[in-house]
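Dock iron/sulfur cluster; give full complex structure.
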Amino acid sequence: MAKDGELIMKFGKLFSFRGGLNLAKYQHEPADTTIGITGIPERLIFPLQQHIGEPAEPVVNVGDKVLKGQLIAQATGPISAPVHASSSGTITAISDYPVPHASGLKASCIELHTDGCDQWIADRKIIGNTYKQLSPIELGEHIHQAGIVGMGGAGFPTNIKLNAGQQNAVDTLIINGAECEPWVSCDDMLMRERPAEIIIGAQIMMHALHARRCIIAIEDNKPAACSSLKNTINSLKPQADSNNNPGTLEIIEVPTIYPTGGEKQLIKILTNKEIANKELPQNSGIICHNVATATAVYRAIFCAEPLISRLITITGDIPHSQNREVLIGTPAGDLIEMGGGQRSALKQIIMGGPMMGIALQSDETPVIKTTFCLIGQTRKSTLVDITNKNILPCIRCGACADVCPAQLLPQQLYWYARARDFKKIKDYSLSDCIECGFCDYVCPSNIPLVQYYRYAKAEIFSLEKEKQKSDIARTRHEFHLSRLQREKEERAARHKQKINKLAARRPAIDSPAIDSPAMDSPEQKKSPPHTAINTAQNNKNIETP
Amino acid sequence: MILNTPGSPHIHAKTSVTAIMLNVVLALIPAIVAYVWFFGWGILVHMFIAAATALLTEAFVLYLRKKPIAPALLDGSALVTAILIAFCIPPLAPWWISLTGTAFAIVIAKHLYGGLGYNPFNPAMVGYAMLLISFPREMTAWLSPGTIEQLSLNLAETFTTIFSDAPIPDAVTMASPLDTVKTELARGQSISGLPQETLSGMFAGKGWEWCNMAFLLGGAYLLYKKIIHWHIPVAVLASLVMFSALFYMIDNEHYLSPLIHIFSGATMICAFFIATDPVTASTTPKGRLIYGAGIGILIYIIRTWGGYPDAVAFAVLLMNIAVPTIDHYTKPRVFGK
Ligand code: SF4
Ligand code: SF4
């Protein structure tokens, strides 16, 4: 066993997950094995929402001069992340621009025209190794201020996933170095070129989480990344001091089966724990962060650099596909051009991988914190256009079910989605579908399955909303009815009181003797209609909830 | 600049229904060779008639239904149905047998239900069952393996025999081994008292055992190519073996051995090519096991106690009915639940 503070590597027993695909290595993975540097684009666009949660709120105005690393939008609410300028220049607009979102809607962004000086803000406070003296909360706050979010694609604010350790004892930190999509190699590149940043970043995270152990998971087809990390761990070993790094650090190679890079699949492989959809791994004592997020944490703590750039695979029909360090906010079209692609010839740009990526509306759409890949297409051949293929009926071959990582029955989901049988489709757990697209990929009938699921999910969502609305309307209506009822009763009661008063007055004039209790019943007999109404109303009163 | 925005995924595997169907046809080649070897050219003639009928009726029905014709013809499913029907037809049966069987399968069993993917019953088996019920004499007149050598019909002569109305002499036709066993047992014979030639060959009837092994080979190819799942064939064969072994151990004079059961009649073509028809089979892993086991058990029951010598068609059709129920109760466990 490892002594406290010692960094060890060991290869644990692995488990497997059902489904998935061994997607052969594609020619589109960049051959260039260096990190390309991109220049400063003329224009940077910063969507206010690059993360899960509340959008950030601008703290600059049009015309303001900003410096590199300066806060331009602050976090709002408990789950949110600030945005920083990735280069120096002038704010030219705060308005709606195309953003990378499947809905294709525009969203609020800050536009910055760069001045080319790339001048940093002045007062950068480097924390460095003193982070070990910080409490997890303080550390989380620094990470939050640096605008770091999950860079593997999810975009969940990282500080929240680091403070989860406060309520849920997190035992294992997993650093995810398995690409979750084919064609993408930016994480591989990061592990090869910047292993120290990843490892120190991981140590900072372990400190924040009080995690006992940390696993760095790498796909087994990436030996270079694996050995570079191993060497780094060995060379860092003497520096690791025993008091503050009580946990162990392991590198584990995992099989290259998509989607191993998916958080839940990776956790299943490493720990054999299955985390259900919409459940949080921290409840099982596990936290998973991407390798890129680890480097961002390192840079925030050791370089006082907020999250303003990242590594992206730029590929597709471009002469020079490469992994590049890109400023957040750079328009996608600029990057395709830098790779030698012709902007005017572009037919589509996919942001993200070929399986789950979003086709961008416009070449002006910027790279955001969660972007890990851009695929530019000028020819027809790179990406399959399913609309040109023959779509045949489902032959129930089950190929889709074999590859579904959520272990659903895509063929049945499709059947019920077509039939608009939304009750049945819920029975078949449509909500657990992660839209990974594997079923679609293997379907011999070329059925665009995922599109059916999206459609069905949207329908169910709007139906549920409608139901909520009608529920509200019904409660309102019931409330209205009961109010009418109450008013009616009150009126009747007042009326009765009046009559009673009148009646009480009359006998007093006619004969005072009637005041005695014995005479009450004949008095009531005199006014049977009121009594009847009252009783009826009383009964109703009981009925109304 | 406005770009195309198709939904994800943006890549697709190189698979197609046509490729699957062609692989199935490829996997049937060993069996075709075996049939030709033991029963003469008849199967090829019937395959030709059935295939032509299938493609023509399919095109015609699609035309009536105002559906695009080319993609459906190219998917190859009609061709596979035709070939499977041809395997079930005695080699020298008259031409109109395969014609009516195939036309019935395509029009009634496939397109009346909505075409490929919507048919609850296996079209080939519907066609075969119809023939078996309507033309029992023609459908049970198998050639005894070897007589073909005596007849020594070449392809052209086979062709004319099938297309002429003259009945083939009774002397050369013979019931299949399973059929004979059934008749003899019904007459109070015991298995050891059966006529010698019934179960000649190595273990399960001359010719038939080789045909079954050819199907097994083709099935292995389909498994290797991942075109079929292992569940159904394994379940069919395992349940058939278990049941026949049980009764064989109790009384081997009146019940056939498991070996004969799995290598005789249509067992292997059923296990690998008919029961595995994805459209009409159960589509969940557990469901496939139940479905296959059901077929195996029904085959045994009908062969042993039913009115027909072989039982594949009825076993498959009966289990087809159960598929929606099986699927409903065998949903796999969702990840993390
Ligand atoms: S892969 Fe396509 S054809 Fe096969 S069962 Fe799934 S949806 Fe149907
Ligand atoms: S898209 Fe949904 S149904 Fe299809 S494989 Fe992925 S999780 Fe399964």
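Observed: Chain A touches chain B through 75 residues (CB under 8 Å).
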